[in-house]
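S., here's the first fold you wanted:
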Amino acid sequence: MRRILSIISFLILSLSLGFAQELIFENYPEGTRFWLTIPYSTIKYKVGDTRARYQVSVEITDARKKRVLLHEELLRITKSEWLVDTALLLRFGGKLQSGKHNASIKLRNLDLGDKYNLKRSFVISERFADKGLAYLIAKKDGTFYLPGSLAKLKPAPDSLYLIQYFNAVVDSVSVQIGADRISIAQPRSPLVVDLLPRVDLMQTNSTGITYYESNIYYKMEPFLYSPWFSYGLKYSTGDQLAQIRYIATQSEWQVLRKVKPEMQQSSIDQYWEVHDPSPGTLRNEAREQFYRRVILADERYSIHKRLQGWKSDRGRIYIKYGDPDEISSETLPLGEYPHIVWTYYGLNLEFIFVDSGGYGQYQLRNKDEEYD
């Protein structure tokens, strides 16, 4: 019997299952393991410097606001092309009781002084994780990182391991790497597979893991970096709610807009659980697509810091509908303002954006079309 693995005993903070741009935990009898991912794209360097120093602090408190875990670490990150499209990875753990907890994540750039402060609430269940995520962890020049794919591991890392914790009696595990297969009988947790001696990085672009238990087998893929991991570091929960307003129904928005600040993140998670096109799996494709569109809208349509691309009219339409089927424009029309027309043939929609100020802030002229 085949079963696609569904993990319900751990939570990825600020995101539903299938994402991780911040902190992941997996709870086992021997303790709770945390994995903190920091997208390399969020690292900033002082002008002229090739190394950045970050002080990372993660404080976990229980429902009574008592500190139950503190992890602090100093990161020295050398500017490197091979780190592009990856996430830095920190690992730590502790013995936590079941119940509600709060996480305070602080990242401080010691060279520039800028800070990221994130607060999240989560609940540790009395039920332990059956199988955690399978991490593909690379190391080069002393830096641990999560690659985007095996094909992007160039130049080759100094080490490359597949690591996965589990709390189940397993008959065997099979790791498929391209055309090669590694079989391990009666594995113990954690599963640790050294891939570097077995992988031709020039030929391999896929990896899969299969767990065999009696007459049942579970298939899964390793956890890799994706560009939208930086979403939670870029946008506050208030911004995230404002972005969801673009796609939420009127009744959904009436509920979300009244949520207290301390409940905003859990409400966002619940919204995406309802809109998950493949519930019970590790990925939420709708949420991935939405985050990708928000980030791209910022990259494409931001004019200055005070006018972020996702807040612009073009950004809003792009987040709602994606890339148009056709774009036409008149930058120097006679007797008219510059304008751009986006056409969505499949949706039978057309949007006209006009730059009446002359400095690139295109505003939607036919707003009625958006809400028809």
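And the second, which I think is the more interesting of the pair:
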Amino acid sequence: MAEALRLSHRRVLRIALPVVLSNATIPLLGVVDTAVVGQLGDPAPIGAVGLGAVILTSIYWAFGFLRMGTVGLAAQAIGAGDRGEVAALLTRVLMIGGAAGLVLITLRAPIFGFALWLSPASEEVEALVRAYLQVRIWSAPAAIAIYGITGWLIAQERTGAVLVLQLWQNGLNIVLSVWFVMGLEMGVEGVALGTFIAEWSGLVLGLWLCRRAFGVRDWRDWPRVFDKVALWRMASVNTDILIRSVLLLLGFSSFLFLGADFGDATLAANQVLIQFVYVTSYGMDGFAFAAEALVGRAMGARDRAALRRAALLTSFWGLVVSGGMAVLLMLAGGLFIDQMTTAEGVRAEARTYLPWIIAAVLGGWASWMLDGIFIGATRTRDMRNMMAVSFTGYAVMVVLLLPGMGNHGLWAALVGFFVLRGLTLGLRYPALERAAG
């Protein structure tokens, strides 16, 4: 009960706001990379950097479970007062990140070949993509390990440190990309080298931010680090999250692919509108991360009152973000669309489907927040199973609605997917509370 009393709106905001600010730097990096190669006067480098970044981002995305799983496990260890396990978790995630990165480096040739087979390009662009990837892949151990470090810091409510890490890494990347391309005329390889250096320097900074953990022997208590029960739990949690994330990606990907059947203007309109979902998710991330940390601590302490209060406080702020975004889109959605495209046909199509994106932003609130709550509680089996149910429902809606409603049916299915995710996880929430003791 004491922990529940210490939970406040101020504490939630202290955790969430640095994450929101750090997320704002993510799209800026892509804009700068595109802009610097755009000064070369040739479209091939622009396409190469864009395609190369998408390929590596997609590969690294598969390891996002390392961040999510680490938050829940570390937060629960903190709530239980098990500092030794907190330190051991840091060692485990660093080892996993390093090992996964080395595997990707070893298998880079077939991985790049398969990726370029899936996304064919001209010979000139493909050659530049390969040059870009051959440089960047060598920072894979650092890039993946940073996922684990980020999760470990969030579990301790040290999101200010996460902001510092993000600002340093992206800021250095921007400076180096401009210098290497505009100053040293290194072209596409310059952009890749800038990211390579930024990611390794980010790992060094991340380790420094975690330095207190290395001041005691727990981080190298090898029997604890390699404890079979702890390793099995970590593997189970991360596997469930990976399966859940793959199904979520399939839902979004199928939405974009199916939209291509309705013509170029409708496809472009869908692409413009879906960006508003991504922007909303960036804002929601901060409060979902706060839910992960606070619910995890409450679960580790077996404090049901604290868990419920953490869920309510973070969900309230998540509703503020999604509701605010919905109102903003109602008032100025057309203006935002006009800023994103000059094609009149695309503008008209996007305005036609704008009400659906407002519904998606509101309908996705519960699912986004419940994801954070369930990650913190490490109820990942429920996340996996409810995602499977929701994805099946989405597929059924697509089959039933698409023939008669066209793109409206596609949007209705996507909104239904969001709502189903919230409803199914909501039905499992009482069991989550009961598990807290």
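Why I say that: Residues 7-226 form one domain. The chain has two domains: 7-226, 259-435.

Talk tomorrow,
H.
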